[in-house]
């Protein structure tokens, strides 16, 4: 479909936390955000999550990935069918393995199949082209962060932080003419965010997460563990740079001897310290840090960020945005850009040598 005016794009995202699929409608022409529409969520069942978890780190062609793809496709088809009003659909899929400098990047799920089942145009496989062109393939939300900065009327540089399973930050200068020009965006993954804490809660207490960060807030931070964590090579690399969910396998072992509360406090502090270290790369001090993703509900992480950073730290809701849906919206926005032939990443966001548009377009119906 050729976009010339704003269309209703349904964006979907299945994040590294493996909790479920988010869906959100954005009215956009791929440049401006004209409005927001309905949203939805389809959680994975425990059995489905186990299939996804078993496929983490595996590559296409393995039975683990095939089983995961089926789970992802079924969940997305169910959720997407609840949005008959969508003109266009964005399907991110589930990242199972991400190794941009080695084997590439893989998001499970076949968008062509979804296009056929739903009878609508589906845009998918957003990351491969960027990686093929020498980029990190992630993060991809930054161009949408730029559009959000414009949408909320920001004039001074600001930063968006996503605290999902992994953390990623985008420094944005909304006074630039577009997200792909040099100096408009600097983005990268900050480090592990909720994933190690979730894994700790699961293995020690059989819980999915540290609700509101209560356990983290009750413990004592082991500063030695945090200091050793910051010595990892990843933090010495200049951005742009990206991570796979399980790129810090030693972190669980580093808190193994601590009490539940102290281990949780220390893992939350590692997530915060990684962000604070990352923010040192900002080209100019941001006027504020707007936090999206589930970690904005973790009181210990938010308090830690407020202590560590010189600028105000607030959830994106403070600016009228929806922190539960921002990433699903981001892929809706990127799909509109793909449909228009506009770039979706740039040297400042993924390290790709020149702005590039990713995404496969699969047409459904007649
Ligand atoms: N009320 C809450 N209290 C504490 N933590 C929470 C709460 N709600 C969500 N979280 C944390 O946020 C995580 C989900 O965040 P989100 O949905 O942003 O991640 P994701 O999109 O799966 O990951 P990514 O952005 O890395 O792909 C949960 O797994 C949990 O750790
Ligand atoms: C390879 C991949 O799926 N990366 C995710 C992950 O989750 C957070 C962080 O790591 C970010 O790089 C990215 O997701 C967001 C939505 C992005 O591309 O902007």
Automatic annotation (TrEMBL):
<keyword id="KW-0547">Nucleotide-binding</keyword>
<keyword id="KW-0808">Transferase</keyword>
<feature type="compositionally biased region" description="Low complexity">
    <location>
        <begin position="346"/>
        <end position="355"/>
    </location>
</feature>
<dbReference type="InterPro" id="IPR005338">
    <property type="entry name" value="Anhydro_N_Ac-Mur_kinase"/>
</dbReference>
<feature type="binding site">
    <location>
        <begin position="15"/>
        <end position="22"/>
    </location>
    <ligand>
        <name>ATP</name>
    </ligand>
</feature>
<dbReference type="Pfam" id="PF03702">
    <property type="entry name" value="AnmK"/>
</dbReference>
<dbReference type="InterPro" id="IPR043129">
    <property type="entry name" value="ATPase_NBD"/>
</dbReference>
<keyword id="KW-0418">Kinase</keyword>
<dbReference type="GO" id="GO:0016301">
    <property type="term" value="F:kinase activity"/>
</dbReference>
<comment type="function">
    <text>Catalyzes the specific phosphorylation of 1,6-anhydro-N-acetylmuramic acid (anhMurNAc) with the simultaneous cleavage of the 1,6-anhydro ring, generating MurNAc-6-P. Is required for the utilization of anhMurNAc either imported from the medium or derived from its own cell wall murein, and thus plays a role in cell wall recycling.</text>
</comment>
<feature type="region of interest" description="Disordered">
    <location>
        <begin position="344"/>
        <end position="366"/>
    </location>
</feature>
<protein>
    <recommendedName>
        <fullName>Anhydro-N-acetylmuramic acid kinase</fullName>
        <ecNumber>2.7.1.170</ecNumber>
    </recommendedName>
</protein>
<keyword id="KW-0119">Carbohydrate metabolism</keyword>
<comment type="pathway">
    <text>Amino-sugar metabolism; 1,6-anhydro-N-acetylmuramate degradation.</text>
</comment>
<comment type="pathway">
    <text>Cell wall biogenesis; peptidoglycan recycling.</text>
</comment>
<feature type="compositionally biased region" description="Gly residues">
    <location>
        <begin position="356"/>
        <end position="366"/>
    </location>
</feature>
<keyword id="KW-0067">ATP-binding</keyword>
<comment type="similarity">
    <text>Belongs to the anhydro-N-acetylmuramic acid kinase family.</text>
</comment>
